[in-house]
Amino acid sequence: MSEIVTAAMVVIGDEILSGRTKDRNIGHLADIMTAVGIDLKEVRIVPDEQEAIVEAINALRSRFTYVFTTGGIGPTHDDITADAVAAAFGLPCEYDDRAYRLLDEHYEARGIEFTEARKRMARMPRGARHIPNPISVAPGFAIDNVFVMAGVPAIFQAMLDQIVPTLRTGAKLLSVSIPSPLPEGTIGGPLGEVQKAFPETIIGSYPKYVDGRFWTELVIRSRSEETLQAAKAEIERMLDRLLQQS
Amino acid sequence: MSEIVTAAMVVIGDEILSGRTKDRNIGHLADIMTAVGIDLKEVRIVPDEQEAIVEAINALRSRFTYVFTTGGIGPTHDDITADAVAAAFGLPCEYDDRAYRLLDEHYEARGIEFTEARKRMARMPRGARHIPNPISVAPGFAIDNVFVMAGVPAIFQAMLDQIVPTLRTGAKLLSVSIPSPLPEGTIGGPLGEVQKAFPETIIGSYPKYVDGRFWTELVIRSRSEETLQAAKAEIERMLDRLLQQS
Q1: Full set of structural domains in chain A with CATH
Q2: Counting one residue from A and one from B, how many pairs have CB atoms under 8 Å apart?
Q3: Other CB atoms within 10 Å distance of the CB of residue A194
């Protein structure tokens, strides 16, 4: 019997809250977590302000197995995630020798100046583990159960690929989708009865509004294939019955 | 001198956290808030669980001018937002007479049964104000500074359009974007100096990674056009200087 493994995400960046940048990382993390059997339970989007970042990380890291952050680890003055994560853990934020050497060699080899700004990307909380960055070298880092990654989607995805194999994962939440031509208002009552009869499943009902017509996607989730199929059969019988009545 | 008006958002729904549905409401709200001069300061995505919804709403409603929620106001058993918002305010959640009549008439006129499930959509915290729903009738509602809206994007957007003219709005945060061919590592140091010289602006630096190349979008935000233009001129001088050196 596998344990339940949970996660939360903190998206850091004024540009998401202003609408200038549309986040593409939340949906990606959600997909990956679902695929490996980790329950993503909460996401917070916070501005580039240390107090807001510290509060979000400390609220979530004690409550969930893992916390993933995106954004704010670049070289500019508004990249304050490393300092904020260090503050959340009460640790000093300092140049990491290995990250410093990696970046120094990387820029040296390309004839690019290793500016003070670039050196900022070698800063992390004391004792942090690296998360390799196969795209632009500057590593993300992990401290305890908090994984700090880039906001640029290509780099975030590459970093996440590095760490996913190292995570504990739970029993995969299986799901099956049943399209219903009947709207939620018709199926809502009987569907609630099915949910009661199968308390170990999570039955979701998602109204779709396409071309002026409503239909409903019903999704059953369960960690047991057998339970999933039993609930699916029950919902299909329910839909048949309602369709005959209508 | 206009006041600062702030907002937070609570996105309610397991389907967003599982990745099955990709949220499209956060970016829309962010755009609208920026357009009318309200600062969106935090977004939380929470599951269809009363405790999580209550906690998010109570944490945010005391801290920001407005809280907007999306999701969980349909007719099925997993639509628990009305109950959760009522619980957050310590109010009873009950059938609203006017909403009940609206829905009853709507379904009557269409020869559709007003099922128990559909009646659920008339429930709201006692004393709530309606948010009209021009698409599918079932209203959203507002209680104090919390605005509860649908998760279906077309309906959410229509509801938001109804309430935006009723909101207090602040001085619009103006912004200007300056594309920089130089990467963040080169401009980071001097850019930090410009930020220090213009403390009343917010200068953001957004790395872009396209076709294997990095460039940087610099965004200056200010409530004063004069300050904005002064900071822009200073950054353009900085970029010219750095480009001549490189």
Answers
A1: 5-166 (3.40.980.10), 174-245 (3.30.70.600)
A2: 209
A3: 20
